[in-house]
Design a protein that fits this description.
The chain has 466 residues and is α/β, with parallel strands linked by helices. It has two domains: 320 residues, Aldolase class I (TIM Barrel, Alpha-Beta Barrel); 121 residues, Alpha-Beta Plaits (2-Layer Sandwich). It is 34% helix and 17% strand. The chain is globular, with a radius of gyration of 27 Å. The structure holds flavin mononucleotide and iron/sulfur cluster (2 copies). One iron/sulfur cluster binds next to helix 12.
Length: 466
């Protein structure tokens, strides 16, 4: 019995110790508190109190309610997607507008959700037109108990034709004016959600900060046509034989979103404003990447529309595991940690040299690397000459270290990039420009022209002879 009690004590103490050591995922984002950084983005998954409650119960820390605003009528159908090879919805597209549910129903449900989940973040996304409408709807959502407001200046279809959504996000001065209207009355934190449909994201970002916004979120969807029906010649999604541009999102847009987040978190006049990262987030890794680039919370739409609220379990446990492994106790401990490594091209070390190496034990002899390098890169891979051996060979002196072969190789870690310089030397374009030594001919030692092997033009036709 004593032995059994000892065992229970050990197990309990291990459990307590373990709990004590668990990282703290909670965040305070511009004054909005949330048990974890994972929020649902304003979209169909936050259409109703039923869905938001279900999501919170599953583990989501916050929800940005489906945008409330002026009355609208939606079309049927309204979604399209890019199904890339075996992956469905690698990119997702919609022509849906803001909520089509009555404002009073939404307000009542926001109030109910806050009663059940007082410690979760409920943010009301808003889109109206005139100053008085902004003032009224802000009062309404504050009375309903929302923890924050998100201004939807991003919708790139339908609403922009009525002068709202991305029509505002694309005009920094208009955006600033509306943020100022909002800040005149808002008692709760305000997040300005930006459209990516602009050439320089810093412009609306700065306008939001200058207007007094407490925080920024991005990205909303990217203006897009996902395809054309080859029988009816109408763009998807088709509405009675016609279509229009939609908003693109899902895994395909993550690189664009990461880049835009970085543009803001690195900007001296924006970097102190909390940023909520959105766009293509599906796993804990995606979320960590946004946080490493300085995001303080992340928002998810397409992944939940695809797989449901349950994906939060893996996102949460993956994030916890990452933090334990790296020794981080809070989200702030690693927020922005990648930023010092994101620089401009002109600051990259031109003396750094990698080349491809093939792991013969892993190679399955598919020739994909050879084809890619010969046709699409630098003719630095040779096929084996002896019969029976299917393992290609890297021609080291021709390899420029572009990575292409390692990206096309279907076997994980079969082609790796191996460093060839000893790390002792560094020169950047910027340093050369300052030293007045940028190349003036194509014969510079470091330029491709001098050392870059190129086969003769006749070599292109040599297969004909054989
Ligand atoms: C069907 C659909 C409806 C959306 N509706 C809204 C909306 O009402 N308000 C808003 O701010 N963003 C809306 N969005 C954009 C998302 O909130 C989010 O910014 C975008 O989808 C990128 O995130 P994701 O790649 O995780 O989907 C919508 C997106 C989709 C797919
Ligand atoms: S890294 Fe580029 S140049 Fe080198 S072998 Fe691979 S594809 Fe060819
Ligand atoms: S792509 Fe990879 S597996 Fe295929 S031949 Fe090249 S190294 Fe081998």
């Amino acid at each position: 019995m004593d032995q059994q009690n000892n065992m229970i004590t050990i197990l309990l103490s291990y459990r307590c110790k373990n709990t004590d050591n668990m990282p703290n995922l909670s965040i305070n984002f511009a004054g909005i508190k949330s048990p974890n950084p994972f929020w649902l983005a304003s979209a169909p998954p936050t259409n109703s109190g039923y869905q938001v409650m279900k999501a919170f119960d599953a583990g989501w820390g916050g929800a940005v309610w489906k945008t409330l605003g002026v009355p609208i009528i939606n079309t049927s159908s309204r979604y399209g997607s890019i199904n890339y090879r075996n992956t469905r919805m690698a990119g997702f597209n919609n022509i849906e507008l803001i909520t089509d549910r009555p404002l009073e129903d939404n307000l009542k449900e926001i109030e109910e959700v806050k009663k059940y989940f007082p410690n979760h973040a409920v943010i009301a996304s808003l889109m109206v037109e005139r100053k008085e409408e902004w003032h009224q709807i802000i009062k309404d959502v504050e009375n309903a108990g929302a923890d924050g407001i998100e201004l939807n200046f991003g919708c790139p279809h339908g609403m922009c034709e009525r002068g709202m959504g991305s029509a505002v996000g694309q005009e920094p001065s208009v955006l600033k004016t509306i943020v100022e209207w909002v800040m005149e009355v808002a008692q709760i934190p305000v997040i300005t959600k930006l459209t990516p449909n602009i050439s320089h994201i810093v412009d609306p970002g700065l306008a939001a900060v200058q207007g007094g916004s407490d925080a920024i979120s991005l990205i909303n969807t990217i203006k897009s046509i996902v395809g054309i029906d080859l029988d009816t010649y109408a763009p998807y999604p088709i509405v009675d034989g016609k279509g229009t541009n939609g908003g693109y999102c899902g895994p395909a847009v993550k690189p664009i979103a990461l880049e835009m987040v970085k543009e803001l978190t690195k900007h001296p006049d924006i970097k102190d404003t909390p940023i909520s990262g959105i766009g293509g987030i599906e796993t804990w890794r995606d979320a960590v990447e946004f946080i490493l680039l300085g995001a303080g919370s992340v928002q998810v739409c397409t992944a939940v529309m695809h797989y449901g609220f349950g994906i939060i379990r893996e996102m949460q446990s993956g994030l916890e595991q990452f933090m334990i492994e790296k020794g981080y106790e809070t989200i702030n401990d690693f927020k922005g940690k990648a930023l010092p490594n994101v620089t401009e091209w002109k600051h990259l070390n031109l003396k750094h040299k990698v080349i491809a190496a093939i792991n013969e034990d892993k190679c399955v002899g598919c020739d994909l690397c050879y084809i890619a390098c010969d046709d699409g890169a630098h003719q630095a891979i040779r096929l084996p000459e002896e019969n029976g051996n299917r393992i290609p060979e890297i021609i080291e002196e021709n390899c420029v270290g572009c990575n292409l072969c390692s990206l096309v190789c279907p076997v994980e870690d079969c082609i790796t990039m191996v460093q060839k310089d000893d790390g002792s030397q560094s020169i950047t374009w910027d340093e050369r420009a300052k030293a007045n030594t940028i190349p003036t001919t194509f014969n510079d030692d470091l330029a491709g022209g001098k050392h870059h092997f190129v086969p003769t033009v006749e070599d292109a036709l040599k297969w004909r002879k054989s």
